[in-house]
Amino acid sequence: MDDRFKMPKLVLGTLVVVGMLFFAVFGVQPLWTEYVTKDYDKHLTEQVYVDVAVNQNANLVFYKTGCPYCEKGKKAVIEVVEKSLYPTFYIDVETEDGQDLVKKYQIDKAATLITIREGESKLYLYATKDKKGKIIADEESIKEALHDTKN
């Protein structure tokens, strides 16, 4: 009686393992990353910006790992800058190059968005506290900063 169920158990166990591996590698991770936990674009970092001409039209998104303001504003700012007509650089304020840019633009808070248009820069905070003291994304500030985005 035990031998009768050996083959179906083996087939079922193999299918379960293959299915779990498939979703772990191809299914859940990309979907989760794309739609739930958007992250900073690692292709355009502080090092790339330092190598680019200063008077270019660009957006600089400053952040710090572990910063509660940066975490709350991250999704909102990433969604808007994806539509920007200008390149966006993500600057980790904890790196050496990031610190150089913090000094250059006189950044006080990590959750800062800078727009550079024709060499002129403007600073915006992309997260703030609401009236109840809860940290939220400052969507008005983000939209004001990036009002020249594609629709």
TrEMBL record:
InterPro entries linked to this entry: Thioredoxin-like_sf (IPR036249)
SUPFAM superfamilies listed in its UniProt record: Thioredoxin-like
Full protein name: Glutaredoxin-like protein
Species assigned in the record: Streptococcus varani
